[in-house]
Write a structure and sequence with these properties.
The protein has 159 residues and is of the alpha/beta class. The chain has six helices and five strands, in the order βαβαβαβαβαα. It has helices spanning 16-28, 48-59, 74-80, 93-109, 129-137, 148-157, and strands at 4-9, 31-37, 65-70, 85-90, 114-119. A five-stranded parallel β-sheet has the order 3-2-1-4-5, sandwiched between helices. The radius of gyration is 15 Å and the shape is globular. The N and C termini lie far apart (48 Å).
């Protein structure tokens, strides 16, 4: 039986912290689908196709990782792909509180779907897409926080 997991997120943009969680999930599972959420309510800076493409470029070195956009419920997306595990990263206690609630809700919707949490290493605990966007908008160097494809996209976005 193939162990297939979903690693969801808005990825606006994908950071090295996201990439760390995806890479570690890929080492634990046979297949990982990175699910790029439409997240229209968050008003992403990058469009869904742009975010999906950036995640594809950033993960192309991981042979058991695929990337797909989605706009429906995560549990439905997982069910459609026959994934039994959701892998999420945790940075701080605030992440835990939110993810704890999401896990409870997802369990009510599909009790066969498990959620696994991977703790971020200390060097990524403070890192978020919103911090990266703000730094880039102010002309800051974000090279150490994002993959090269994202740095290039941010440079173009704020040129």
């Amino acid at each position: 039986m193939t162990r297939r997991a979903i690693t969801p997120g808005t990825f606006d943009p994908i950071t090295r912290g996201h990439l760390d969680i995806i890479t570690r999930a890929a080492s634990l599972m046979d297949e990982v689908i990175v699910a790029v959420a439409a997240s229209a309510g968050k008003h992403p800076m990058f469009s869904l196709p742009e975010r999906t493409q950036l995640v594809r470029e950033a993960t192309q070195h991981l042979p058991n990782v695929t990337v797909e956009p989605f706009g429906n419920l995560l549990v439905d997306f997982a069910r459609e792909r026959d994934a039994k595990v959701i892998v999420k990263g945790l940075r701080a206690i605030t992440d835990f509180e939110y993810e704890f609630q999401m896990n409870a809700l997802n369990h009510q919707l599909d009790f066969d779907l498990e959620t696994t949490f991977i703790m971020s290493p200390p060097e990524f605990m403070y890192l978020s897409s919103s911090i990266v966007r703000e730094m880039a908008s102010l002309g800051g160097d974000v090279a150490q926080f994002v993959p090269p494809c994202v740095q290039e996209a941010l440079t173009k976005k704020f040129a």
